[in-house]
Amino acid sequence: MNSKPSPPVRIVTRPEAIARIRGRLKSFCDEEHCACAAAAHRGILCGGLRNLSDGELRRRFEWIARSRPGASREELERLVSLYHISRQQVSGAELCCDVETREHCGCDGWNMFDDEALARFHEDLTGLPVEIGAPAEDTSPGR
Prior knowledge:
Elements: E1 10-12, H1 14-26, H2 35-42, H3 54-60, H4 62-67, H5 73-91, H6 96-103, H7 115-126, E2 130-132
Helix pairs in contact: 1-7
């Protein structure tokens, strides 16, 4: 057989895993498409806005939906994406996931995911399997 051996599973901290996922996810975003739009389009992470029913999308972003009662779902998703990008820019965050982790407006950001889910996302997006935990302590002499 000509199968490649699996790469070794590396232990990383939760912030390290999120940083790596963030880096890959950012490559799918642009000035009009936030991480929620990218996740929805690519079917990754939480699935983004596509995992919300029309009613739930309108409820979570009711101040946007209320001002545009006849807006289509596509238009609401576009406006929510622009809203997220604006919040990122104002706060200096890299992704709307980072903003949502702090502000919990549309979701709970990175807090929505347990360590096992983050490890799966890491492998899906980077191709590298990881286990999330505390790195081994350095027990070398003099430490």
